[in-house]
Amino acid sequence: MVRVEEYPTAIPNNEFEMIVVGYCKYVPVETPLIPMPNAQVSIDSFGDESAYQEFLAQTAEVSRHNL
């Protein structure tokens, strides 16, 4: 934490005793970004041939649109 501010509530018998605001310092993680390999999808992921074939057709159509 860089800084913490506390404010008592102005309303007596309030559910909350005070409002606390914490300020943090942003420290980005410095790691290389490595692309993930494409997923290998098989019929076992779907349970039946028709769902697998539908997935293949949708994937092929998306690929054509991205060209």
How would you explain this protein's 3D organization?
- With 67 residues, this protein is of the alpha+beta class.
- It contains one helix and two strands; from the N terminus they run E-E-H.
- It has one helix at 49-65; strands at 3-8, 18-23.
- The protein has a two-stranded antiparallel ribbon with strand order 1-2.
- The longest helix has 17 residues, at 49-65.
Question: What is the strand and helix layout of this fold?
Answer:
Blueprint: E1 3-8, E2 18-23, H1 49-65
Antiparallel strand pairs: 1-2
Radius of gyration from the alpha-carbon trace, in angstroms = 27 Å
- Helix-strand makeup class: alpha+beta
Number of helices: 1
**Percent helix among the residues?**
25-40%
Along the chain, the helix and strand elements come as EEH
Task: Give the strand line-up of the largest sheet.
Answer: 1-2
Task: Report the portion of residues in β strands.
Answer: 15-25%
Low-confidence stretches: none
Mean pLDDT metric: 86
State the separation between the terminal residues, measured CA to CA.
48 Å
* Number of E-state strands: 2
Shape: elongated
